Amino acid sequence: MGSKLQRFERHIDIPEVGLEGQKKLLSGSVLIIGMGGLGCPAALYLAAGGVGRIGFMDDDTVSLSNLQRQVLYDDHDVGVSKVTAAKRKLAAHAPDCVLEEQDARLSPENAAAVITRYDLVLDCSDNFNTRYLVNEFCVRLKKPLVSASVYHHEGQISTFRGWEADKPCYQCLYPKSEKLALAPQCTEDGILGPVTGIFGSMQAAVAMNELMGIGESLAGWMMMFSALTYDSQKVRLKKRASCETCCAMKAPIEDYVNNGANCGTN
Length: 266
Ligand SMILES: [Zn+2]
Description:
Layout lengths: L2 H4 L2 H4 L5 H9 L2 E5 L5 H10 L4 E5 L24 H12 L4 E5 L8 H5 L4 E4 L4 H14 L3 E7 L2 E7 L9 H4 L4 H4 L11 H20 L8 E6 L5 E5 L30
Parallel strand pairs: 1-2, 1-4, 2-3, 4-5
Antiparallel strand pairs: 5-6, 6-7, 7-8
Helix pairs in contact: 4-5, 4-10
């Protein structure tokens, strides 16, 4: 085994992964939206695990109150751009990984150009506007979206493939409403540090399985876990016939990949 592959021998030893699976990781690419509590562990495991190219996007700088859970950063990074600090740490960890930082916030103007360049997207953001935007463009560009969110001691994770006839998108689950816009967000609410580590790491595991084409897909499912009661649950998600993103008759963009024909079965 070459020295480059030796790094991943404990992956290659897994029967479901093997050399073939590791090669898929090495030729794969993932985009991470948001380099906070979820994005830090996700990026670290994806880079260490051999994903060939990782994009990561955030327009924020490191603050002292981030350090309790955003484990890529330390005291010296306070005031520094998150993507700059993250790139330094990730490059030291995985020198062969192509690291593409974007010191920007995802917007309707840049979303298509950024998302189209990757095989798969992780939503590690902390606000509903970004979540809706990521979802909309992932549906349009047919990119699997691995989405997680955390609150206090709890978290949830799902994969969305909303362009498929029987698979829901994020907005099927969370219809846009005034109430949601006022819901608490991670930037302003409490969260136990390790819970972000659990769910960011799960996002990395789900993304790796998607890239390798192994395991049971989390598309159409949501997995929830509480670090207070230690209960976990996996529930089915349905496509919503009135979903404005994956089922709407009036598509927001002309080349929108989906239409009403896929919907209404539920
Ligand atoms: Zn939908």
